[in-house]
Amino acid sequence: MHYRNRATRHFLFVVALCAFRTTIGCAVEPTTPQEPLFDQAIALSWEKTAALFDGARALDHIANQIAFGPRTPERPHAKQKTLDYISAHLSNISYIQLHHFQVKGLSGTNIWARISGTSQEDAPHLLLGAHWDTRSHADREPVKAYQRTAVLGANDGASGVAVLLEVAEQLAQHPAHAVVDLLFFDLEDMGNIDGFHYAMGSQAFVDAHPDYRPDAGVIVDMVCDKNLRISKESYSMNQAPKVMSRIWQSAKRQRADAFTESPGMAVIDDHLPFLNAGIAVVDLIHLPFPKTWHTLNDRIEHCSAKSLSQVGRVVLDFIYHYVPLNQQSKPVTTQP
Ligand code: 1BN
Ligand code: ZN
Q: Which of 119, 196, 326, 332 could bridge to 190 as Cys pair (CB 3.0-4.6 Å)?
């Protein structure tokens, strides 16, 4: 049945969602004054959202990726195993597509998976991204002899993928209103190596899909460090402030204290091609960079399930609360 009236459709959606929520609980959200009622009407309670994300399982995803070795252009076997690993964890729960591209003589592959939302019509459309490649040169190593050795990338590469795979699992089991695209980018970390740039895979994706217009998006990069600190990355703050504000609201709700109020530097990461195309995508990244960054010490012993869990909970909370940005302050209520 088709309902022309948007409010009617919204009302039916809220009713349906509440019916769905009886299977996983329908507790009342703790309120903060700036939060619109509309938000609260469709969201899972923060505790239910917090309980969904399994940080230990995300840490296992890191262990499994680094077991393939560095995921660099010189190691096609490790890259293929990683592509197979990511695809295998998504193929049962989503529609999945590979995007092959060439850039400056290098071959790359992005993975694009889509998880449907609970409603067919008028659903917002969100993007979650992470890079799955790792850096060919550990050029921040203090010892020069090691600076051309490849980075294992437990944090810089595997951690973002790990968060996305665990978020995908939870979205498949507990669908959100929004349609969520998961994008796993290749060739992010080649900047300043042999004349290559950062974020080449995401740039290739944006170039190849000019009609792709999600409402908003989030990139996660370097999110497993035991002393995780996510400051407000500068391009994200300047070009997608409303999405940043939503993310930090979610961080408050989730008591995720790795998210700080400090301004962070500007980072050329996978959000930038989208921002340049006018799509509001933000970068959640450890800033200032941890000591292990681009060194041979980027290993799993510096990662923690708790840090992964903070980021996963915030991303899920953001998705479950998401209403289009231009409707944020619309006072829609289900009260009589
Ligand atoms: C993030 C993780 N980046 C590389 N590894 C992007 C970056 C670009 C970092 C420029 C610093 C400078
Ligand atoms: Zn890097």
A: 196
